Amino acid sequence: MARIPIVREDDPGTSSEAREYLKRVETGHGEVFNALRLLANHPQQANALTDFVRSVRYRNSLTPTLTELAYTTASVVNRCYY
Q: What CA–CA distances, in Å, run from 64 to 16, 48, 55, 70, 77?
């Protein structure tokens, strides 16, 4: 059982802010991964983190290929296989 609740859009207890965050993520990604559903427990912080990640990922001076290579290299160096 998960220790942090997974936020669902169809749950009546889900706040409107969390629903808006999940909708924003779905619009941007096409789907909502469980890690992002966990972040939706705190929508204000989740939005800030999402904005930061998008900034790092898409607003940099690297080509898309070099950006992906940087992410892959960092994952290997840090032994992150997820």
A: 34, 23, 13, 10, 20
